[in-house]
Automatic annotation (TrEMBL), chain B:
Phylogenetic placement of the source organism: Bacteria, Bacillati, Actinomycetota, Actinomycetes, Kitasatosporales
Main subcellular location of this protein, as a coarse class: membrane
Membrane disposition: Multi-pass membrane protein
Similarity-based family: Belongs to the sodium:solute symporter (SSF) (TC 2.A.21) family.
Protein name: Na+/galactose cotransporter
Cellular-component GO terms for this entry: plasma membrane
GO MF annotation, one: D-glucose:sodium symporter activity
Amino acid sequence: MSDMKRGEDPMTPGKTFDVRWLIAGLLGLYGAVLTVLGVTDGAAEVAKADGIRINLWIGLGLLAVAAAFAVWARLAPAGRGDR
Amino acid sequence: MTGTLSLGAVDWFLLAVYFGAIVAIGLTTKRAVHTTGDFFLAGRSMPAWITGLAFISANLGALEIIGGAANGAQYGAAAVHFYWLGAIPAMVFLGVVMMPFYYSTRVHSVSEYLRRRFNNQTHLLNSVVFAVAQMLLAGVNLFALALIVKLLIGWPLWLSILLSAVFVLAYITLGGLAGAIYGEVLQFFVILAGLIPIVVIGLHSVGGFSGLKEAVQDPGLLHTWQGTTPGHWTNPLGDWIGLAMGEGFVLAFGYWTTNFAEVQRSLAAKDLNAARRTPLIAAFPKMALPLFTVVPGMIALIIVPRLGKPGGPTYNDVIPEMMQRFLPSGVLGIALTGLLAAFMAGMAANISGFNTVFTYDIWKPYVVKGREDGYYLKAGRYATVAGIAVSVAAAFVASEYDNIQNYIQLLFSFFNSPLFATFLLAMFWKRVTPWAGFWGMLSGTAAAAAAHLSAYHIGWFYPGGQVGPHDTINAQMANFYGALFAFAVDAVVTVAVTLVTRPKPVAELAGLVWGLPDPDSPDAHEALVRQPWWKSPVVLGSVILTLTAALSVWLVIAV
């Protein structure tokens, strides 16, 4: 079973590619777009969401999650010390 | 829904960014795929939080989201049983008890476990059934996707079927299981970001949970365990025997512990501890999911006129209706992206399970044996293309049932429920013989089919206890009982055949059966490492079960 030894290979995906940066990037971009939309939303958009400025709140939430993943990926790089 | 969604440029932008990211995942992970181990098992290199999120996402296809909301509208609060009763105990059992049998024996698939524990016949039977079922399920996923896209955006069915098939093809044929897993992790966050606004605005519009409770007309829709007395049930999901034994035990354990499309995510974990924690980490979000599916379903009952009535929108329209009604441009784009991503993740899970079983369990051992690894890597990629082609064809076939989840569960009760009886006996009784596995499984599946066909003539499954000319059967309850019957038949046949046939030598069963540890286990060194409590599967599992039980009791008392 030679294919079982791959876990120690430095070329395995977990080592070359850290999905946490991808999560941080995508959610960060989504968060930024939504936050800007939320600030500029007119009365019609707010009324549609039953009076909640939903784009703003979800945008800020996404930015927070993105920041958390970026900090985690920075402090504990893949390959050592991850869960 | 009246008309399609009014999507702005920003919504299309958010959608395009996501699918760009998915293709990027495929291209990036392709560089790390050199062997079949990389392609089918992601090199067994993933940390537990990634495989855990992929584990939950593989079961968070849009079928489950749309179907979960439909169940919330149709059955009310009782639909939480599909999560707290029908998933979490089984996920804990998989992580705490069964995972070592899968991970430490280094099998590539659940089917391969059957080959080592039983014989080739049992193995082939299970592999073929699984492979065919996964292609059909992928087809059901595709068809459901196309229906939703038509409703939401107005595209013709064929266009969305082909487009999504191409995307799934791109990231799985390139990146293999790693591509699928990373896609699933990304999808998990996007679908939550899309569902949260629906729940928040929906609850706000009906006056929070207390407003929701007051506005629900039928008190039966607030009952979870109330009204489940056998013979006199009024609960929308029937009596407690069917619920606790059929759904909670047989169906749930059959699905979560033997369905390779799920277990495969754990096998990609970097070590045994991470593999065992995979379903446990997934159980925490699973616990919260009713909030994002069942609750919107119940809200929709109040705010969508004529929901589920003749001439009105169907229960499956809950999420689309709420999106159109509540979401402004921006969160609307994210919800749409999440829904489409969820469909593709569900399909990707089916297809990555299929290509592994087809290559490792059908092609390699029985058709073209003994070739070099590169050959099977190529075969796996061709199998992916062929599997997607078949599922595209299947997408146009199945649409006879009005509640998609009923159809899926029908399939499960035929194939999956007898399976758990076989695994339970196989793992805990070393005497069970190779042929007992084969005949047990086969008779269990036949029993499930027979139970389904005869249920319509049995008064027990009808409200009031009699088959009246105008009564409709409680289809869920009949499914639960059918699963229970299949389980019993499988167990009885397995034991009976065991008693008259020759068992495997104990030496061949090391690591495969409880109480027969493998002294050469590749994970033996892990037993010496003392894990902190928050990495202990037993501690995590106990915390999860306690929390779930507390939530269930709270729900009975509070509503």
